[in-house]
Design goal:
Blueprint: H1 13-36, H2 42-61, H3 64-67, H4 69-89, H5 97-107, H6 110-132, H7 137-222, H8 227-252, H9 265-279, E1 283-289, H10 297-318, E2 322-330, E3 333-340, H11 361-371, E4 375-380, E5 386-393
Parallel strand pairs: 1-2
Antiparallel strand pairs: 2-3, 3-5, 4-5
């Protein structure tokens, strides 16, 4: 027989004590009735009741009873043997069969428990009939009905316990899953916010600092031969610092970029071209085509940042003389084209982005257009300038979350 620990259904402490008290009470009742009725075998009945009570009392205090199916079966056999002896001496012992049903169903396997309950019920019926010296169907009704009730109660309780355990495990799994999902969402949110911050810093503060650096270098080259030009470059650098300080403050406060506040995207792009032409040795021109349509803040910010980054690349890397910025409204799309006559490059041989030398601009532009369901196209040939085209749908796709305001 397998002596491994049985999968016992835990019972409430109060229920266990009720069962203990019921068995002891029934044994005491059998002994008291034997004495009060002045039966001839009263002494034996009292002695066997006491032995049966002691054998039963040993079960709850022995740890092996709950850990080993074999130990539980041996203990139940000992209790049952004492009960059979008592049943042979007193008809009152038939009532002890009822709590024995619960013990057998609880400690034994389902099949062994049913066999034990059936055997106990048969012994109770036979014993009682022997004491009555006759047998009738009514004598079998009580033990049989008690066995049926015990089976229904124990199996029902076990089914409820299994269902409760199943729901508890489901709740635990759901709790763990929700915690994992919350953690994943938190990580995704952190990464998305980090990506947004990187784009904003690159297109605002980094480009502004680069512009200030170029203006100060121009002022340094103008000294001492052309102090007027140097002063003009320094004043432009100061104004660029003021503009970028405003960008930084609004950026921290998560507000709309100052260049878009109280104006349209077309006006902001035209002002960007004018400022770029005034601060650097490049002529930037703005063009507007199509009928302007209302744009979301995310669209306006993305297009403005792309134009800023593209013109900054023209100033820093292309060394071109002119740049044309065109904003086009094309029905259900809006497009931004930036074309310069600089030295161009090979789009297939771009260097990897580096914290020291930069190279994050094109990747940032692609990320902005992709976030709004748009496309970014770059055409360039070494020595023949560069053409950049960003196209965004006026209505963002349903599965694309608009970019938050900087």
């Amino acid at each position: 027989m397998n002596s491994a620990a049985p999968d016992l259904t835990p019972t409430n402490r109060a229920l266990a004590w009720c069962l203990h008290l019921l068995i002891i009470g029934l044994l005491v009742l059998a002994a008291v009735r034997a004495v009060t009725d002045d039966r001839s075998q009263a002494g034996w009945i009292v002695a066997v009741s006491a032995v049966c009570g002691l054998v039963y009392a040993a079960g709850p205090v022995l740890p092996g009873i709950r850990r080993s199916r074999r130990a539980a079966a041996l203990w139940l056999a000992a209790v049952g043997a004492c009960w059979l002896v008592l049943l042979a001496l007193s008809p009152d012992a038939v009532w002890v069969a009822f709590p024995l049903y619960f013990l057998q169903l609880h400690l034994l396997s389902r099949r062994a428990g049913l066999v034990a309950v059936a055997a106990t019920a048969a012994a109770a019926i036979s014993g009682f009939a022997a004491h009555q010296h006759s047998f009738s169907p009514a004598m079998a009704l009580g033990p049989a009905l008690g066995a049926a009730v015990a089976v229904a109660v124990v199996w029902g309780y076990q089914a409820l316990y299994r269902e409760s355990e199943h729901r508890r495990r489901l709740i635990e799994e759901l709790t763990v899953t929700r915690a994992d999902l919350a953690s994943a969402q938190h990580v995704a949110g952190v990464l998305a916010e980090r990506d947004r911050l990187a784009r904003e810093i690159h297109d605002t503060l980094a480009q502004g600092l680069s512009s200030i650096q170029l203006l100060l270098r121009a002022a340094e080259r103008a000294l001492p031969e052309a102090p007027q030009n140097a002063a003009r470059h320094v004043d432009q650098a100061r104004q660029a610092a003021v503009d970028n300080l405003a960008e930084a403050r609004r950026f921290v406060a998560a507000l709309t970029p100052p260049t878009l506040e109280g104006t349209t995207l077309a006006d902001a792009l035209e002002r960007l071209c004018t400022t770029t032409s005034a601060r650097h040795q490049v002529t930037a021109r703005f063009h507007l085509t199509g009928d302007p349509a209302p744009l979301t803040t995310a669209h306006e910010v993305a297009l403005l940042r792309i134009a800023q980054s593209a013109l900054a690349n023209t100033v820093r890397h292309a060394e071109g003389a002119t740049a044309d910025v065109t904003l086009s409204y094309l029905g259900d799309h809006v497009a931004l084209d930036v074309v310069d006559d600089g030295r161009g490059f090979d789009p297939a041989r771009l260097p990897a982005p580096d914290p020291e030398t930069g190279g994050f601009g094109l990747a940032t532009m692609r990320a902005r257009t992709r976030a709004l369901g748009g496309t970014l196209t770059i055409e360039s040939v070494p020595g023949h300038g560069t053409a950049l085209a960003a196209q965004l749908p006026l209505a963002p796709p349903a599965d694309t979350e608009p970019e938050a305001r900087p």
